[in-house]
Amino acid sequence: MKVFVAGISHKTAPVALREQLAVTQDDLADVARSLKSIGALDEIVLLSTCNRVEIYAVAERPTNQIKSLFRFLSDEPSDLGDYIYIHEDDDAVRH
Q: Which of 15, 25, 83, 90 has the highest Cβ tally under 10 A?
């Protein structure tokens, strides 16, 4: 099993981008289910606050497309690669 967290925060992304990716409380469960299915994830927690949006997940095999899951959160296409941080295994647990 592979444990990871991927996200953007006030330390890595401007407020305009964080607003594009934010998920309302009413939509969290539905969006998390969709991310789980398109990302081939076994377990997922989606966290969305005013300062950050993070995906905590467990997958049977490593997923190289975790950054692409963030594109699902926004209607506006943008290059998110420079803003997303990823922690895996022990680093994810410490985070």
A: 83
Active site residue 50: yes
Q: Which residues lie closer than 8 Å to 62 by C-beta, 6 or more apart?
A: 2
| pLDDT tens sequence for the chain (95 residues) | 888 999 999 999 999 999 989 999 999 999 999 988 887 889 999 999 999 999 999 988 666 677 778 888 877 767 777 899 989 888 888 88
- Measured at the CA of 84, the angle between CA 27 and CA 44, to 5 degrees, comes to 45
Q: What is the DSSP letter of 51?
A: S
Q: Which of 50, 72, 78, 93 is catalytic?
A: 50
What's the pTM? 0.87
